[in-house]
Amino acid sequence: MIGVDTNIIVRLLTRDDDTQFQKALKLFQQENIFITKTVFLETEWVLRYAYDFTPVQIVDALEKLAGLSQVTTESAFQVAQALAWFRGGLDFADALHLAGTAGQVSCFATFDRKLAKNADNADCRVTLL
Fold first, then answer.
1. Confidence of residue 15 (pLDDT cuts 50, 70, 90)
2. What span, in angstroms and rounded, lies between the C-alpha atoms of 61 and 53?
3. How many C-beta atoms lie closer than 10 Å to residue 79's C-beta?
């Protein structure tokens, strides 16, 4: 199994450099791939800010990527939950934070009013300090 960096996934999803895209594609075709939560987090940020992907485009791309038979995702349920909440309007980083605490804490404390407001759709108890 091979872990991959954000830049491999970005090349695969954007095809903005044909040589690197072909190498990334070959890697995904020939190897079992492991993707960490932090790589998903950074990939979302890069796709949003550097490539102007919409949240729906990002969720669609990352869900398809995570669903490939040769791909293993760190904390797969948490990543899937965060992507679902992101699709529902929550910031992806915030969604990943909340998904990571599920079942571990009684609530999630924040100063972020937007997170507290949007977390209503996330079935998580968020306390605004």
1. very high
2. 10
3. 23
Specify the domain boundaries for CATH 3.40.50.1010 within the chain: 1-74
Local structure of residue 67 (DSSP, 8 states): T
Instruction: Answer yes or no: are the C-beta atoms of 90 and 123 closer than 8 Å.
Output: no
Measured distance CA(50)–CA(65) in Å, rounded: 19
3 Rama sector, left if φ>0, alpha if ψ -120 to 50, beta otherwise = beta
Q: What pLDDT, in 10s, does the model give residues 53-95?
A: 999 999 999 999 999 999 999 999 999 999 999 999 999 999 9
Q: Residue type for 57, please?
A: Q
By three-state DSSP, how is residue 29 classified?
helix
Q: CATH top-level class for 1-74?
A: alpha beta
Is residue 112 within 8 A of residue 94, CB to CB? The reply is yes
